[in-house]
């Protein structure tokens, strides 16, 4: 059976394990989008905290509204947005390291296990704890 010359050239230029590399890139981009969303939420929380602190300072004469706003301007409210921003940055950095590592593993002829999810698990637990703490803080 004779091959068409154009078909043979396409086979040579095809990236080996292309679907695996494409899946790795899609996963990387999903992690980056998640990190950016968490960073954006952190900025929103920080802006909200700044707004509440400004309102609390402006309403120093009105005791009733000041007492209600004081619970939103406590020590936790100064760092919750910053923690979310740092978690988002950590997610992006870990996803970049993981993307490069997985890309090398795909190209490697040796078989590898998929047991390296410790960093993702730790970040997910920390993010869950921050969101839970924020929820409890605002609920009380």
UniProtKB/TrEMBL annotation:
Entry keyword set: Cell membrane, Membrane, Transmembrane, Transmembrane helix
Q: Does the keyword Zinc-finger apply?
A: no
Its localization reads: Cell membrane
Q: Where are the transmembrane segments?
A: 27-45, 81-100, 121-139
Q: Does the keyword Hydrolase apply?
A: no
- Xref: InterPro entries: DUF202 (IPR003807), IM_YidH-like (IPR052053)
| PANTHER family, sorted | DUF202 DOMAIN-CONTAINING PROTEIN, FGR18P
Q: What is this protein called?
A: DUF202 domain-containing protein
